[in-house]
Write the structure tokens for this entry.
Amino acid sequence: MTSYLVRRVAGALVILMIISAITFYLFYAVPRDPARAFCGKICQPETLALIRHNLGMDEPLFVQYWHWLAGIFTGREFVQFGECPAPCLGYSFATQEPVFGAIVDRFPVTLSLTLGASVVILAFGIMTGMIAAWKVGQPLDKIASASSVVGASLQIYFVGPLLAFYLVDTLQLIPRPSYVPITENPLDWFTHLLLPWVVLSIIFTANYTRMTRSQMVEQLAEDYVRTARAKGMSSRSVFFRFAWRGAMIPIVTIFGVDLATLLGGAIITEQTFSLHGIGELAVRAVQNTDLPMLLGVTIVGAAAIVLLNILVDVLYAFIDPRVRLS
Amino acid sequence: MNETLLELKELVKHFPVRGGALIKRQVGAVHAVDGIDLTVGAGETVGLVGESGCGKSTTGRLAARLLEPTTGKVLYQGQDISHNSRRQLKPIRSEIQMIFQDPYSSLNPRHTVGTIIRGPMEVNDINPPGGRKKRVQELLEIVGLNPEHYNRFPHEFSGGQRQRIGIARALALDPKLIIADEPVSALDVSIQAQVVNLLQELQRDLGIAFLFIAHDLAIVRHFSQRVAVMYLGKIVEVGDRESIYERPRHPYTHALLSAVPEPDVSSEPRERIRLAGDVPSPINPPSGCRFRTRCWKAQDKCATEVPPLVRLSGNREGHLTACHFPEAPTTQGEDVVLDPALA
Amino acid sequence: MTTVSWSSEPGTSRGPGPFLSVRDLSVEFSTEDGIVHAVDNLSFDLEKGTTLGIVGESGSGKSVTNLAILGLHDPAHTKIGGEIWLEDQELISADRTTMEKLRGNRVAMIFQDPLTALSPFHTIGRQIGEVYRKHKGASKKEARDRAVEMLRRVGIPQPETRVDHYPHEFSGGMRQRAMIAMALVCDPDLLIADEPTTALDVTVQAQILDLLKELQQQFGTAIILITHDLGVVAGTADNVMVMYAGRAAERGTVREVLREPRHPYTWGLLSSMPRLNSSVDVPLMPVRGTPPSLLNPPSGCPFHPRCDYPKLAGPELCFNQRPSISPETGHGDACYLTLEQKRELRTAKTEDHA
């Protein structure tokens, strides 16, 4: 188990390096010069060169990347901004704030959104899927299946404003979405994020309903389920204690893959409800050709996904004893 | 036996087992086949028996050169084909054909029977007189299927008929050697006999040599002129049919034969040997004689010295046994119970 | 091999009826392609402490029959007719809770492939123990102790350690032993073994069959042994029933059926199998053709399309009328040929073969 984790984390670091290198390279492939943007409308060549030097952009690409990478572990010194302690992701070209600090500020918003939505997706998706499988072929199964098709075809930017209009403005059932830190007021944190969670999870939930249903139906036809029944286990315990375990294995696997998509969905959701999360940072960084911010957001997002995937694999081993993490 | 068609020399196939912390490296190997010698003469039928994991299927695949040996040699008509490339193997492929166990998964479900049987002719660019279609219809007739079923799909046939399609495909190129890997074990009893009879007719009429791989000792006996018994990657005993079934010398051969359930209620008791436990893992086979962990005659020597496969005194010519303490040439009526769990 | 008469033995102090009695059982499944007539009008009895071998090929209805005894079919798609009596309890009409109390307790089952039939997610000990807890109300500790005891009883070495292992950590033979331990944990009166050795190697098969026999001698369990292999039946069962296309073709003691087989299908099965001492120079004599589709079983005797003598009993009899087993008790078969005809045909056949 330990050696497995060591191997996975080492692999993750390699992946993150490759991702950051690609982002770095792609950024310079775009024909826009951030130094020119700093320089303003009337820009003297000397001023431009100075700005370039101050930003560290007059060095070869490889060296720039090396400085950036080293900064994460050792911190670095900027001519323009001064000392940047480790972990240093540089300063934003656009707002001149430290990238790491900006991300740390916004991270709880996106994390709350993603984790909350994950809980809704898994709890609700698996529950409806189980109900459908329990009542397979009966009206309840058909309703669950039909609504999952409808759910899968909805879009965040369409459902979001629509639900906001009815639930917040017209019926005034829940407060307008915003972010209240959980440490400040857990109840407000919950109620204010409820709508974004629901909206973000709608598409995914439908998928998990369908998957859970088909997996359960498949598992119920397995030999070991028949054995459990031959032992005198009640249908209920066969369903919830035996078949359930088998059905969860592919669900957990798919969920690991879906995490990245979920993070993408979180960015759209943040935009839809004007939540100040990582997504907002990312969109703005792209608009402003803000390399340090873009790199920072990309690397933190990628790290989150890679970490969660390791977590999912460990979970997998707990569900299925045949998978030995060695 | 006349001219030698296929010769396996000190053949070894190890499948690597990988593991390790940061970097995956080979930590061991499955000793699937561990140094076997076997010949198949032209027109001869050789049976290969053993329990699961003994390496009999791997041996078959090595002989057909679907696998490349780790060490050792595969000689076909005296020519070393052990490490030949795909291109070099092409002319030989048409002469060695395989029949597989599962008639359900070895036929492409989207192809008609005609396409399936014609396949080998197309790949090898062979144009029989009268055209390929005519040849396919001939083949269908040979294996006892209706030639008019040319355009049907595999799922329209029963298991036994599907196995016949597989046989027709193997015959398409007039092979000299057919390697049949458990060709009847997936079939119902009454159908098994039909397919065994068909294979025997083909063998007799067309003079094809067979390497017949099976776990069913009675069927192997019925089909094969010579029989090799495998255990954990090694041949423990080989000889003509009569030697192996009437005068076996290796304790494992005895145990296998005595375990076969026969549908007889005759009064004369059969030899009864019950082996303890299961076959050990081929990743870590026992030292010395591999059978010693389940053998009732094992002594210290068996753990240290690998018994050579040799002709023992009392054996007929060609009857080789790999055992330090072989059974007397004939034993009958003994009742040995060796499983501590059952004793 | 002891010969046990088919009908209930006189002189024993048991109740009037046999221990297990299946009467006119029929099982039909509705599928997308139509109705499958899996079992058709099947009757048989089983006495305590004896073994009945049910022999047949795939689709003969041998497994379906036994799933019906345990009520393990899908009720939405299955129609069951007839009666199954376990002593004084009728099982087809029994409600769900009765059946749940019966399964694993009085009637247990073991399956062909112990790898897929055991849950991969639970330890062997837990799978054995939970049957005991469910039916005997034992505590966790008692159930675990019982599991260890059962593993020891079926010959698994180091049961105290093995009890906490998962099925994938066992070898094939050990898994089937564990499966047997699980089936016998509540000392059932009836054990149904569905092809228990088909997935195993021949030397391991011999071990498992010995184990079953031995446990039966110790505990007096009645066993139904389902198999396609007449050889397995020969060494293990007291009585045998040969099934074909959902019907009984022949039944009797093992000695009667193997020595003096009466039904042409039984002849075919026996002559299909090569023996270790049969002549290798004559070809096997298989049953021609293939087993019928149960969606649309043949009229008359279901075996007539594959039978060599369908006209011998009369021009149309075999084609139009279903034969039922006669005589009612003892060695009987479902064929219209007279005993005299059968004897002549069989003598001719064996002479042919020799």
Summary: Chain C is about 35% helix and 20% strand. Chain C touches chain A at residues 70, 72, 76, 96, 100-105, 108-109, 111, 113, 116-121, 130-131, 134-135, 166, 168, 182 (CB under 8 Å). The radius of gyration of chain C is 21 Å. The longest helix of chain C spans residues 202-219.
